């Protein structure tokens, strides 16, 4: 499966989610079976690739990774390498870039993290527009989920209700709460399950997100 983690809005946690998902699948943390995973960084800041460099310094198993901020190159490389991996995870930058558009054109699903803030919700309309253009040429599933949610509730309910009204984007029944474990683990290139001290709630939330993503794709198959 080719999964893009993307949103035209920056600062919504795309790189964190892309890294966590890639390591999760590579190690078989949620699925119980390790997979061949390629992490493609399509963001000019190369946050995911930098995090994997930090992972290499821990001596833990590494993942295949590459960075292509040019859309044409990203599309060509992903199509050429797709048969060599079970899953490709693309971290697309937080803007309407050629890399994001190319990633959508080669992906089976786009995971769209959003924060419980009005600006982030408005950006989903931009994503819906990009998806409409993409679907004129390719079928792609769009799955949004609440990221950095308020563990106490807060604006979560209003945000999820607003997303449900966006055409062409489905809301996943999983969310990641605002927890330091996600940032600390990702900064070291680690999955939250590898990071110490282990935050069991963060680990469960990440596994729930992976399960919900695959369940949604199975239902649409």
Layout of helices and strands:
Elements lengths: L1 E4 L8 H14 L9 E6 L4 H10 L7 E4 L3 H11 L5 E6 L5 H9 L2 E6 L3 H18 L5 E9 L6 H8 L6 E8 L2 H8 L12 H21 L1
Parallel strand pairs: 1-4, 1-5, 2-3, 2-4, 5-6, 6-7
Helix pairs in contact: 1-2, 1-7, 3-4
Computed over alpha carbons, the radius of gyration is 16 Å
How many DSSP-defined strands?
7
Give me the secondary-structure category: alpha/beta
Give the low-confidence spans: none
Count of runs of 4 or more consecutive helical residues:
8
Helical amount: 40-55%
Widest sheet: strand order?
A: 3-2-4-1-5-6-7
Determine the strand fraction and express it as a percent band: 15-25%
Tell me the span between the first and last alpha carbons.
Answer: 12 Å
Order of helices and strands: EHEHEHEHEHEHEHH
What overall geometry do the principal axes of the alpha carbons give? globular
Report mean pLDDT, rounded to a whole number.
91
Largest sheet geometry: 7 strands, parallel
């Amino acid at each position: 499966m080719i999964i893009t983690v993307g949103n035209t809005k920056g600062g919504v946690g795309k790189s964190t989610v892309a890294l966590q998902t890639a390591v999760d699948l590579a190690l078989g943390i949620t699925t119980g079976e390790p997979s061949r995973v390629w992490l493609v960084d399509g963001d000019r800041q190369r946050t995911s690739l930098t995090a994997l460099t930090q992972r290499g310094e821990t001596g833990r198993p590494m993942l295949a990774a590459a960075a292509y901020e040019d859309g044409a190159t990203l599309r060509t490389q992903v199509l050429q390498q797709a048969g060599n991996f079970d899953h490709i995870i693309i971290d697309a930058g937080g803007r309407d870039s050629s890399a994001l558009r190319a990633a959508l054109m080669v992906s089976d699903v786009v995971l769209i993290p959003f924060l419980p803030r009005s600006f982030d919700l408005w950006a989903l309309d931009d994503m819906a527009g990009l998806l409409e253009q993409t679907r004129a040429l390719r079928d792609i599933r769009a799955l949004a989920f609440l990221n950095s949610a308020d563990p106490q509730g807060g604006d979560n309910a209003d945000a999820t209700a607003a997303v449900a009204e966006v055409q062409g984007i489905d809301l996943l029944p999983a969310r990641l709460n605002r927890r330091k474990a996600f940032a600390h683990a990702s900064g070291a290139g680690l999955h939250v399950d590898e990071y110490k001290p282990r935050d069991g709630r963060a680990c469960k939330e990440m596994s729930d997100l992976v399960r919900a993503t695959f369940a949604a794709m199975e239902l649409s198959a």
